[in-house]
Amino acid sequence: MVLFVLLLLPILLLLLYFIVRPRPLTIPIKNRHVFITGGSIGIGLAIAKQAASEGARISLLARSLDKLEEAKQSIRQAYQVDVAIFAADVRDYDAVQSAIKEAGPIDVLVVNHGVYVIQELENQGLDVVKFMIDVNLTGSFNVIKAALPLMKDRKDKWPASIALMSSMAGQVGIYGYAAYSATKFGLRGLAESLQQEVIEDNIHVSIIFPPVTETPGIARKNMPELSKIIVGSGVMKAEEIGKITVDGIKCGSFSIPCNFLGQTFAIATAGVSPQRSFLMASLEVVFAGLFRFGGLLFQWNLYGIIEKWHAQKKR
């Protein structure tokens, strides 16, 4: 049996080399137009600064004009690149469409905006649930739908990118994250389907899965106590996520995890998602069972924490 597996493995890996789709490619950033929603603070601003440091022309869209002005000045002073700003709410399709038309053809679209309210569903108002869906999910449809005609009409025809900012809560459900996770899981379905629709136009879709990040949008003090315990205290810096995101976009990666745990989740939940990397495709195939086992251990630990917490509450 072991000999059979050893003989079969090289054949399987050779087959993978030919069937991995879409094929590997490089998406240039220098001298190209990068348009970022939610770009005035946090991860969006960090992505903008990373792209600017590599010579990109930057456009930022967010709701607050004051914060946009601050972001514009900080990028210009640091990198001496052209920065355009647009104040609009992603829930307003007409406003988004007007901003994108004014910005002009986009080479790299980063759909980064999002709101984050963590609470048990039983205690969370439906108005808050709808707000997260409208911003995180419907807002993403608005931005992409408004940008697609101009992206398809770009003149240089180099590979272009649409990158969606999901979350590790879009890889695995967490206590208190029911509404937020639903919006972030939804982005993956959007990304997988959209990639098939735009591949012929040389547009390549990425989805990023950051963990809890040190940004102004995170209000951990209002999280349920059990959510805080499960998530833990470790956070990544926005600048780290910004660099990982831009590097992933340049490689045309579909799935962009941001730390080791996120990478294990990416392999465990790969399913039938696109994979450009022969190496990652090989890891997903060879270690799928092992990472599924790891996922079960993660769930065992997760439910253990929940049971222990409830037991302590009853005392």
The portion of residues forming beta strands comes to 5-15%
N-to-C SSE string, H for helix and E for strand: HEHEHEHEHEHEEHEHEHHH
Helix content: 40-55%
How many domains comprise the coordinates?
2
Shape: globular
Structural class: alpha/beta
Instruction: Give a short account of the largest sheet.
Output: 7 strands, parallel
CATH-defined architecture of the largest domain: 3-Layer(aba) Sandwich
| Radius of gyration (Å) | 20 Å
Enzyme class: oxidoreductase
EC number: 1.1.1.102
Main location: endoplasmic reticulum
Protein name: 3-dehydrosphinganine reductase
Structure description:
The protein has 315 residues and is of the alpha/beta class. The protein folds into 2 domains: 1-20 and 278-314, no CATH class; 24-276, Rossmann fold, CATH 3.40.50. Helix content is 54%, strand content 13%. The chain has a 7-stranded parallel β-sheet, sandwiched between helices. It has a two-stranded parallel ribbon with strand order 7-8. Strand 4, helix 5 (126-152) and strand 5 form a beta-alpha-beta unit. It is globular and about 65 Å long. The model has no long low-confidence stretch (mean pLDDT 91).
